[in-house]
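Troubleshooting: if your tokenizer reports a length mismatch, compare against these two reference records.
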Amino acid sequence: MGYLYIVSAILLWSSLGVVVRLSGVPVHVLIFYSNGISVLILSVLLAKKKYRLEFLKGNTGYLLFLGPLTLLNTSSFFYAFKNTTIANAIFTHYIAPVVVAFLAPLFLRERLTLRVLFSIAVASAGLWILLGMNLGELLTCWKEPDRDTVGILSGLFSGVTYAFLIIAVRVYAQRYNPLVLCLAQNIVISLILMPFVRVFPVDALWSFIIVGVVHSTIAPVLYFRGMSEVSATRTAILGYIEPVGAIIFAVIFLKEYPEGGAVLGGALIILSGYMTLKEKKHS
């Protein structure tokens, strides 16, 4: 049943890029109001005393840690959607399993094998092809980045922070009710963003509701619930459903077709993650 929860969450998240692109509002505004809607929904659901007591159970410091980490991941991912293609954002985001390979020996005491090192090299090659530039051009982009490159680098950063989330959520998902985890992270995110939001764009209300209900409430609750039963390795493998769904949504709603270089580079990145996860599965 845990697999079904995770697959359902990932399929819901795969539509996120289209909503972000069509919303027409700054990333922090979309995150703030959608999280506010989620907080209202979850507060009603968690009105019972037994759920309130869960905020005091176990390592409550983790609840404070989850919010900023999720915010870094979400904002950089949204920013990637805003500045590059859906395909580029998704493919760079899924460098995460390779990063997990480096984090696992530190947090999960797993071995770093030759297969994992090879998969990292494949991912690096995929990213290079995805960027589609030589070393001189890349250095120029660091100094004077164009919009597409900024989006790709944002997607890459979101993949790194997502890797930390995979490790953290797997460690703590069994300690808290998924509704409590989701509410705690969304409260912290809303408090962090509150000083930076001064307007309410009424025209974008539809996007706040969709993201708030679907992507900030239902999907993460399903994901947390699933990770209480499914290992981080298998969860990451299931995550590769998202790029397929995201590109399909982009083609349908945005008429955005991935270019050959993006497909090749992204395929190498996904292949590298699969190789890493396959090695971990057999270790």
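Reference record two:
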Amino acid sequence: MNDPIGVPSHVELGLDTFGDVTFGADGELLPYGDVLRNVVEEAVLADRLGVDFFGVGEHHRPDFSISAPETVLANIAGRTERIHLGTSVTVLSSDDPVRVYERFATLDGLSNGRAEVILGRGSFTESFPLFGYDLADYEVLFEEKLDLFVKLLDNEPVTWSGTKRAPLNGQRVFPATDQRLKAWVGVGGNPESVVRAAHHGLPLVVAIIGGDPLRFTPLVDLYRRALDRFGKAPLPVAAHGPGHVADTDEQAREELWPHYRVQMTKIGRERGWPPLTRDQYEQAIGPDGALMVGSPDTVAEKIIRAVEGLGLERFTMKYSGGTLPHEAMLRSIELFGTKVAPRVREHFA
């Protein structure tokens, strides 16, 4: 819980990935199967090093390998012992809430209560035409499906109706979980989504992709005011942001740059943005930038600044960065678990 000035007395630290398709030792892109198996090995390492949470994103595009996150997480669950497992995010708008709940309830049973689901609208839209949804219904799809999903969390018969899905009439969904499934709402900066999360009494995850992390302070404040207005108890706030850890600041900066540049330039071309410049990259990895890139000390200080500034109870670093090779990511995870996390935890102890 937060103290009166909003600084947490304890912070959870996690890692996540979208299963970015990476270069192999020969400089060629790895097959999707190799990338997926590497993600499992990365999660096993994170568990062994005491990282609190491991998340995988859902995407339906060629540069990412994970389109069925629950399947990947189930594999990881069988290879790990204590780390919590979830998504970053599950695109609820283009899925069925009942099936999402069933899959994560199953994962929760398999992992002995370690499953979490982060529900969002998604920053990419490929899943909408893929599964037959109209982008014109972007808002109503998420609003209705989140409303149904929250009702499913009670493990009780559900009666519900909406405009985009068949109604339920006193129906139960299985398997039931031993405890209430932990569900979050992930947002990228939309105030309506923040208020919606508070209305449903769900904890919040803020995706910090660009700019100063502290620019999200008004959104976090809005969330906490909305919780109070809706008569809800205080709930955790988490943040997720990209990063890379290496032995020195220079090594981290130079290792990530060519892979991050290609990825962001490609995404920018799809969205009408100009190509990423080196100056923009340097600003993003600076003291008040969004990228958690640098030596363990540098990354720890940036995480501490974000946690204190936003009153976070969890911070998750997206350790994959475009085609950044598996070996570099393993080293980043090792440094995160052995040096970054202990320093951040000691600061808040």
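Descriptive notes for reference record two:
- Confidence is low (pLDDT under 50) at residues 1-5.
- The chain is about 45% helix and 15% strand.
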